[in-house]
Design a protein that fits this description.
Elements: E1 2-7, E2 16-20, H1 37-40, E3 44-50, H2 66-77, H3 83-97, H4 102-119, H5 122-138, H6 142-159, H7 162-178, H8 182-199, H9 202-218, H10 222-237, H11 243-262, H12 266-283, H13 286-302, H14 306-320, H15 326-342, H16 346-363, H17 366-382, H18 386-403, H19 406-445, H20 447-513, H21 522-550, H22 553-557, H23 560-571, E4 577-583, H24 591-612, E5 616-623, E6 627-634, H25 653-662, E7 666-671, E8 677-684
Parallel strand pairs: 1-3, 4-5
Antiparallel strand pairs: 1-2, 5-6, 6-8, 7-8
Helix pairs in contact: 2-3, 3-4, 3-5, 4-5, 5-6, 6-7, 7-8, 7-9, 8-9, 8-19, 9-10, 9-11, 10-11, 11-12, 12-13, 13-14, 14-15, 15-16, 15-17, 16-17, 17-18, 19-20, 20-21, 20-25, 23-24
TPR repeats: 126-159
Organism: Epilithonimonas vandammei
EC number: 2.7.13.3
């Protein structure tokens, strides 16, 4: 089970923390008896707020824990401080109680708002609203969390507080991430990161990177998740230890453990969870203790270490009961039900799951609903109740499709890639600017003697920079065109797999699930097995078709020349004569060149068949020492290349050119009405 902990303190721009574990791989479902559907889908319980210290005396908190801090604040409050000091204490108690008691945190939050409004202190009021946003987030009340964060945002916007807005972007992004608005969340994280990088704020940059790492955990992109979270950990490990830094390490080791666990690197995941548990115990952070033990308990269930699992889950449950959250308490029952299923106690697990399901549906805790549907499918399947198993399995699939959106994941990842590209471009331009300024400074020393020469050189340099910018812009356009084509191809393949092969395999699986019912009826048993065989044959045919579309078998097994001959043989008909001439084409040509030429020739033939009305195509491919030259000519009706937009059914003219330019080649199209079409391609091979 996945459990998410978000950590927020706007003045310190905290990261969020996800503390997770996955279902046992030994659970069976109607779709598979050995693995969980879709690589052990994670169930996420977004439940809990951590804290970071920004109190005025933060440098003296190294030896303190939460209980001591709260006790000291209450002691100061009992001394009848002035109005400003009282408001400040209420604000801090709101924040620190978020990790101990939601009820107390909300109570002090109301007092803080009342006291701060009387003072007309807009800076402190913005902080209080931010703290209340964090408390509501801790209680899974994302609507009120967003509401309070936006109030703080409006105040800081009026104040033109750019740093505060950047930190709020992190907090609002965590709310949107929790409600599965991944594109919006990634956009806000990157806006915050851009600001902190520009200001040289290394600390907040690393906090934001940890947030982005957690988002990649949600997207199941473990490689990027480990990259970002490890970078943040390395930074915090290099800092002087304080309660704030210890909490950062606590949260990030837990998130790193989750990423390793999703990679099935269980030994490394256990190591990270244990590091987090040790740090949380050291500073007395009960939430961290609870979730670290819960993760370890679920990890031990997967490894069938029952005694260790029981100890850790018991510790987690005892601490969790203090959080004052119904969702927190009920989600712990999912772990218990999971353990019961492993032991074969299906009826006990069913009663527990049916008891907690209404709470999750009422609170719209979708990740916990997904977990419960999954386990109920498992229970009913193992107790021979196929109708009930199918009912919950369909609810599981419907909700899972709602939460897992391939396009959202792709777009969100693309945002991060574009940010990294822009960042690199900016660094290059900054470096060029430094070089330019240095050259100007050196040249200025000799300005009296070499003014004319310096003027000429500076003008030449500016022209070179402009030329380089133009080249970079053209390369960027070409790259975007290729990326768009590749994204469209991936989407098409994903749709083919989901709607074609996926449905066939699901149908086969459903038939396999009823075989036992007909094992004593040979005739029906034979019909079902034959039906399964036919379905699997269709699936195999679909996979072969998709594989050939991705990379022709002839091109994989042989050379480009043989692949083209095979293509021409399959394309030629009595109504369309296709002539192919090949000269000097070697088998050792770079694979990228072979694939590009094959696809473009294939696309040109397809366009001729669809649009030109030609009855003849002449194709020539010639290789010299330095280049490969290709010419494709038909006798069709022709067209005006300047008026043709990109064809959505194929690569399209722009993407054909972009692929050639990526290989540093050239492409020219010569066509007009009633004149046919000629395509010239030249690609260097040196």
């Amino acid at each position: 089970m996945l459990s998410l902990v978000k950590i927020r303190r706007i003045e310190t721009n905290n990261t969020n923390m996800k503390i997770n574990s996955t279902l046992s791989s030994n659970f069976s479902t109607p779709e598979s008896s050995s693995t969980l559907l879709k690589n052990q889908f994670a169930m996420i319980c977004r439940c809990l707020m951590f804290f970071c210290l920004t109190f005025g005396f933060a440098s003296g908190l190294n030896a303190q824990n939460l209980s001591e801090i709260i006790s000291n604040l209450k002691s100061e409050l009992s001394k009848n401080p002035d109005d400003k000091k009282r408001a400040s204490i209420y604000s801090d108690l709101t924040w620190y109680y978020a990790s101990v008691s939601v009820d107390s945190a909300l109570s002090y939050g109301k007092k803080a708002i009342s006291a701060t409004e009387k003072l007309q202190d807009s800076v402190m009021l913005a902080q209080v609203y931010s703290d209340l946003g964090a408390v509501h987030f801790r209680n899974n009340d994302f609507k009120n969390s967003e509401k309070n964060y936006l109030k703080s945002y409006q105040i800081r916007k009026r104040q033109k507080n750019a740093a505060g807005i950047a930190k709020l972007n992190n907090n609002l992004a965590s709310v949107y991430q929790s409600s599965f608005q991944y594109n919006k969340a990634m956009k806000m994280y990157l806006e915050a990161l851009k600001y902190f990088d520009a200001k040289g704020d290394v600390r907040n940059s690393n906090i934001t990177k940890a947030n982005i790492g957690l988002l990649f955990v949600d997207l199941k992109d473990n490689r990027n998740a480990i990259k970002y979270i490890t970078e943040a950990i390395n930074y915090f490990e290099s800092q002087e230890r304080s309660v704030e830094i210890e909490n950062k390490l606590c949260e990030n080791y837990l998130n790193l453990g989750k990423a390793f666990q999703m990679q099935k690197n269980y030994s490394e995941a256990e190591k990270q969870y244990q590091k987090s548990a040790a740090i949380c115990n050291k500073i007395g952070n009960k939430q961290g203790i609870s979730f670290a033990n819960r993760n370890l308990g679920n990890l031990y269930i997967m490894q069938r270490k029952d005694s260790l699992a029981q100890v850790n889950l018991q510790v987690s449950q005892e601490v969790r009961e203090e959080f004052n959250s119904k969702i927190d308490q009920e989600s712990n029952s999912i772990d218990v039900a999971q353990s019961l299923i492993v032991k074969g106690k299906y009826q006990d697990a069913k009663r527990m799951l049916l008891n907690i399901l209404p709470t999750f549906e009422k609170e719209k805790s979708k990740e916990n609903q997904l977990s419960t549907y999954k386990l109920l499918t498992n229970v009913y399947h193992n107790t021979a109740q196929p109708d009930s198993a199918e009912f919950y399995f369909e609810k599981y699939i419907a909700l899972d499709n709602e939460l897992v959106n391939t396009n959202v994941i792709s777009n969100t990842t693309e945002l991060e890639k574009k940010y990294q590209t822009l960042k690199k471009d900016s660094e290059i331009l900054q470096q060029k600017s430094k070089i330019f300024k240095r050259n100007v400074a050196i040249s200025s020393l000799a300005a009296l003697l070499l003014f004319g020469f310096v003027f000429y050189r500076n003008r030449q340099h500016r022209q070179k920079v402009e030329h380089q910018k133009a080249i970079l812009q053209q390369q960027d356009l070409a790259t975007k065109a290729v990326i768009t084509a590749e994204d469209n191809e991936r989407k098409r393949m994903a749709t083919h797999l989901h709607d074609g092969v996926g449905q066939l395999l699901m149908a086969a699986n459903m038939n396999v699930s009823v075989l036992n019912e007909y094992k004593d009826n040979p005739e029906n048993f034979k019909k079902i097995t034959q039906k399964i065989s036919n379905i699997l044959s269709d699936a195999i045919a679909d996979v072969r078709t998709l594989s050939h579309q991705m990379m022709p078998n002839m091109l994989i097994k042989n050379s480009l020349a043989n692949a083209l001959r095979d293509l021409i043989e399959k394309t030629s008909t009595p109504k369309l004569a296709v002539n192919l001439q090949i000269e000097g084409l070697e088998t050792e040509v770079d694979q990228n060149i072979q694939v590009t030429l094959y696809r473009i020739i294939q696309e040109c033939i397809n366009n001729t068949v669809k649009h030109s009305g030609a009855d003849k195509i002449d194709i020539s491919v010639r290789q010299s020492d330095k280049k490969i030259t290709t010419e494709i000519k038909d006798n069709g009706k022709g067209f005006n290349p300047l008026k043709i937009t990109e064809n959505k059914d194929g690569i399209g003219l722009q993407n054909m050119k972009a692929r050639i330019e990526m290989l540093k080649g050239k492409m020219r199209i010569d066509s007009a009405a009633d004149r046919g079409t000629q395509v010239f391609i030249e690609i260097p091979i040196v």
